[in-house]
Amino acid sequence: MKSSARLDDIRIIVYFSGKILIGMSLIYWIPIFTSLVSGEYKVMFDFILSFGLILSVGAGFTLLGKAIKRPSWTHGMVTAAVSWIMAMILAAFPYWLSGHYLSYLDCMFDVMSGLTTTGLVMIQDLDHISNGLNMWRHLLTFVGGQGIVVLALAIFVDGTGGSYGFYVGEGKDERLFPSVTHTVSSIWRISLVYLVIGTALLWVAGIAIGLSPGRAFLHGLWVYMAAWSTGGFAPMSQSILYYHSALYELLTFLFFMVGSFNFALHSAVIRGNRKELFRNIETLSFGTTMMILSFIVGWALMKLKVYPGIGMLIRKGYYQLASAHTTTGFMTIYANQFANEWGNVGLVAMVVAMLIGGSACSTAGGFKGLRIGILFKAILQDTKRLLNPSSAISIEKFHYHGERTLADQQVRNAASIVLLYVVMFTAVVLATCAAGYPIMESIFEVASITGNVGLTIGVTSPSMPTILKYIYIFVMWAGRLEFMAILASIGFAASLFKRSRR
Amino acid sequence: MVERIKARMEASPAAQGIAAELLFALALGIAGCLMIVLGAWIADIL
Question: Which of A200, A486, B5, B16 is the most buried (most CB within 10 A)?
Fold first, then answer.
């Protein structure tokens, strides 16, 4: 009886994973169209083949599985975790067919890096890849920023109570509207409106710096997708440094800053509640840490006389810091300049920025400003309790889409996630050191991986040890889904294992 | 042209919201730049 119940659970998970893969297959038409327009027929056939593969697997899953009952939270969480892994395996196929990768593992690394909006790359000869493949890279990061499950929910799944579990499983726990369907379609509407504005502005900026109109449009579109998703992929291996343009840097800065805001904040501001920008605990927390770290980076870089003037200090120092804090990963310096020029104080400030990250329910990674704000409020409350008489009641409030009273459960949730991040970060730093990399380089690179940032000090490369590639893929996945979906999947797998042994 | 954009903006709360978000990001950017300059200035005089 119980084993048939478990089989039903598996069938539900398989069915909805299939739906998500079918939803994802729809985006293949964008690189197919790009390749066709660019006259890249070999690339176009690669994508058609890959489309056939993901559609077949997705359809096969929906046939094998069955939506026997309304999906529970566990189903939603496990489905989110499973579909991300399946998407990584299948979306790597066009990369592999392109011949720009040394192994299928490197292809999967780049897909996971894209979907999780990390931005680290294993690709060979990035500066000479086809338009179709470049479109695919940036599309993955754009869709990953919103969430592949969010994409499928917007298309296929109705707004039943069970569908909320899928949404939460992807590391988003904020309902913009009471209905999940309304919430996910709102996320996509906001992203697409910004996509049009951002691409248009970067297109003009590209033409202004001398790119041809067609190239300026494609670069504008791709760079915008990566900026909004706080992804960090760029069409050229030199990242944003390639453009040598203060205007391009300013525009990308604005888009990745806005991209790192919470979707609930976007929704509130767009609906007319502009005061939320200045009162929200998350923007206050982000602003505070950003100011403190800016001061430290300015101090550290000037002490070492790294940059000759204030202009360069802002364009190199501040841009890198903002890119790190929003977990974007765009660079206007070379990777080895971090190790050779920035000094330990500057690097530690960058590590802290990468670990804190952007906002909850946004495209950004890291601990998130909301959790830092809540933990700070909890410390403040505990300090007040110590200082006040024992009979005094200390109530701490914060503003987050309305006034809220700090509850122990919120503090516990925030502390658990931050603790999990710290444990994973420490373990992976140890693994990177064990693989032979110096301690400061290991700390920097692992902070970048854990926070889904994408800045690199030079550790991540096709020649790094294979075991580290597997570990980094896991860390990007766990960091993006914020552990809950993975813990639920482990629990689910353990329960299956236990029953099979009885 | 500017008048037309202004009229459109006034008629659309969404456009005003987007403008507010971009201005807020710009303000954060300017504040961060000032902090980095302050840090550099203190490092220079110490």
Answer: A486
